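Notebook, bench 3.
Goal today: get a predicted structure for Kelch-like protein 10 from Cyprinus carpio so we can plan the truncation constructs. The sequence was checked against the plasmid map this morning, with no discrepancies at the termini. Length recorded as 583 residues. Pasting the sequence as submitted so the record is complete.
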Amino acid sequence: MENISPTVFNVFDEARLLGEHTDLIIRANDREFQVHKIILCGCSPYFRVLFSANWTRIPEQFYDITGMSQNIMSLIIQYAYTGSVFITEENVLELLVAADQFLISGLVDACCQFLESRLCPENCIGICMFTEDFHSCSKLRHKAKLYILQHFEEVLQVSEEFLELSLEQLEEIIDKDELNVKQEEVVFEAVLHWIDYAPESRRKHIAMLLPKVRMGLMTSDYFINNVKNNALVMENEACMPLIINAMKALFEFDMDLPGPISLELIHQLTRPRLPSAILLAIGGWSNGSPSNVIEAYDANADRWVSVTLEDERPRAYHGTAVLDEFVYCVGGYDSVEYFNSVRKLNLITQTWNEVAPMYERRCYVSVAVLDGFIYAIGGFDGHGRLKSAERYDPDTNQWTLTASMNERRSDASATSLQGWVYICGGFTGTECLFSAESFNPQTNQWTLIAPMRSRRSGVGVIAYGELVYAVGGFDGATRLRSAETYNPLTNIWCDIASMYNPRSNFGIEVIDDQLFAVGGFNGVSTTSDAECYDEKTNEWFDANEMAIFRSALSCCVISGLPNMAQYAAQRDTVQIQDESDSE
């Protein structure tokens, strides 16, 4: 009946409200509803079967719907006649039960979409448990499970329903690679919290739950003090083989401990969980030509994974941005053409699509995201360095010119922090720049801020914590190892620890609370190495290197992908590598 004009349904609904030509009375909780059989049959296979067995030419028949509230029955009838209904947090669960009972698939879907849009740490477990009895809600149940896994630490803080999980439900959650925790210690604490809710009946379950905790990923101090010496663990003999193998994984394989080594168990206890976010290194200049290579960095496994999509054309000296779960590649150069084109990558479907082009061709472009807009700033159009800027609105698929900068600059770098866009360094065509500017979108105005301590072209700029970081680059004579930070509150730049390796035209991003510098040109050649900086210790650390040497790449971070496993290191491969490392 979906092909019938809405006007016809409006006529039927008006006739229902006036009691005209009705041939059925539905009674729910002592309230009677006059309806037309044909309308209910068109909406619901349940009613079609019910009425076909008792279809008569008697003017009106009565049907009692037991256990149904007047309000919900009214909404069901309204949906049958109009195809829409007002769903609220107060009525959605009861309405979903009724829609499922009457096999009204459209209304079931509407209720599920409503609940999905309301998923939060407080209700995700409840929604997941509620939908277990409804085959028609499998998609919502999957979304709720994924939400629990991706927001596990937040769920632990606020969800009372976590404590009401069954043993099997808790096992399923903490066994998943997709479980998102910053430290495995959180999982062990969650197990203890769950047991403590009903200690007499649950303390015996520690032996079932402990194998799901990846103790080999814990710090050795925490493991010894909080796991090995935990009273529940010590009193349960079944836990001892787990503890022995975890100790062998954490310390040395040949340490003198009683009990056999189980490589399978050690793999289970040391298997990295999937990352909640991945860092993408896209394109760049490699082996004397532009590249279309995309590598994904899995921080949990410290591995790079090739995820290149061959239908993307090579580009270098471009910018990337993540907005609304899409990756945008902006501008760039392929050794022949200077691009004004912009491509959008859907990492779920693994497809590229062209979006609206920029007003100007821009390679050596600086890109930032602020308040749902992508900013493309400065660059080189093949003729000269640019001071213009423009921003992209994904809702309208349009670029709009903004105010121009105070200085022309290409090969700069931009970021956003606390409602402002910042751009630092760059090249005017004759000199490398100290200068930096901030853009206020409310006033559409660029303002020069304090200059950096070093000239930096090919610099990496990123917001990290409450500061703007300017890292590496080229000062006109040498590639730089140095880095500095800008505090918007004081308008002051301060030096921080230098990188291990000099680099310009590299990728820069923040993932897992660490700043990564990836690839680049070191003054002699392109490089594949990567290093990361921890603001807490003011130290740089080596990270695993990419598969290819490249500069002029661009990096971005995307989180919450439902298919994150496609972009992460294969967990079995990681284990094999760990085993060989230990031999």
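The longest strand covers residues 277-286. The domain at 6-118 is CATH 3.30.710.10 (Potassium Channel Kv1.1; Chain A).
Flagging this for group meeting.
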